[in-house]
Amino acid sequence: MVRFTKKVEYALISLRHIANAKDEIITAKQISNKFNIPYELLAKVLQKLKKEKILESNQGVNGGYKLIKQLNEISLSSLIDVIEGKLAIVECLHEKDINDCFISDTCNIKSPINKMQYELENLLKHKMVSDFV
Predict the structure, then answer these.
(1) pTM for the complete prediction?
(2) Average pLDDT in the 6-19 region?
(3) Can you give the CATH number for the domain in which 19 is found?
(4) Residue 40: is it exposed, middle or buried by C-beta count within 10 angstroms (0-12/13-18/19+)?
(5) Which of 74, 98, 111, 118 could crosslink 129 through cysteines, CB 3.0-4.6 Å?
(6) Is 1 part of a structural domain of the chain?
(7) What's the DSSP call for residue 43?
């Protein structure tokens, strides 16, 4: 079963919350408290979104996050890449695991799996984060 990781879920929840706040600056603590998300994990997710210029942050007493990009400009595929790296439906499709597969030469499902992977990637490229808002 293909499923989003908690980090991807937290990113979607945060982006929706920040987008709905309009121009208000939102802190990681506010999101953490409102949605019962572990603060340390959420802070790491938000930092990744900042590094990729999806969010901007302000430091200090009135610090927090606000959107730089519009949610309709961010594909679900790119969000997953930012948070977790490339999504693969089987381990051997991860670039780091490709040489670890000991049945690669005799695998009889390689072709249909690759086709499914392509279809999933295509779906996620065309599904925007704004679809969750």
Answers:
(1) 0.86
(2) 96
(3) 1.10.10.10
(4) exposed
(5) 74
(6) no
(7) H
